[in-house]
Design goal:
There is one protein chain. The protein has helices at residues 32-38, 59-75, 94-102, 115-119, 126-139, 146-155, 162-166; strands at residues 5-8, 11-14, 20-24, 42-44, 81-84, 106-110. By secondary structure, the protein is α/β, with parallel strands linked by helices. It has a domain at 5-112 and 158-166: P-loop containing nucleotide triphosphate hydrolases (Rossmann fold), CATH 3.40.50. α2 (59-75) packs parallel to α3. It is globular. The N and C termini lie far apart (43 Å).
Length: 173
């Protein structure tokens, strides 16, 4: 069996494999979860870790927890596996891409497709960006403050491809 990687548009495909990982990305309140639930399969969100409210101190643990759940689903050959996280920057999707290659999953990157999300353009003037951030924050289920959503929009890396994620490195703070 050929296990080489072939590029087909927005999907990297492991030859002779039909399992699919979908990386659903977008800022809080953009409609990721709504879209993710429409895709079928099993949906995994780091936000599910926070049953008693969001705790920034537990964020790294929450991401590791979610990655383990995704890996478990892949070991069970679930398809599609949908990761519903913000993935504002490429490095945030790297653990999932690594799992996909390890477990021979095709990878597709998606974003919400609603009218509000389509209004967002990286590099917009800050006043327009703040207006959008307020609308996203009002729509969000997890209570992300407007300032947090605004910062996500400012850091947004558009048009991510799997190759971008594969070569991304987590910034050192």
């Amino acid at each position: 069996m050929d296990s080489s990687v072939k590029y087909h548009g927005a999907v990297y495909q492991m030859v002779a494999d039909t399992k699919l990982l979908i990386l659903m990305r977008g800022v809080s309140g953009a409609g990721k979860s709504t879209k993710a639930r429409q895709l079928g399969g099993e949906v995994f969100s780091t936000d599910d870790y926070f049953t008693n409210g969001y705790d920034v101190a537990a964020l790294d643990a929450a991401h590791v927890w979610n990655q383990r759940r995704v890996e478990s689903a892949m070991h069970r050959s679930v398809s599609p596996v949908v990761v519903d996280n913000t993935m504002v920057q490429a490095w945030e999707g790297k653990p999932y891409v690594d799992l996909a290659f390890k477990n021979r999953y095709q990878i597709k990157i998606m974003e919400p497709d609603n009218d509000l999300w389509r209004q967002f353009r990286p590099g917009m003037p800050d006043d327009e960006l703040m207006d959008l951030a307020q609308q996203f924050a009002q729509r969000g289920r997890h209570g992300a403050p407007v300032e947090v959503v605004f910062k996500m929009l400012k850091r947004w890396e558009p048009n991510l491809r799997v190759i971008d994620i594969m070569h991304a490195r987590r910034p050192q703070f």
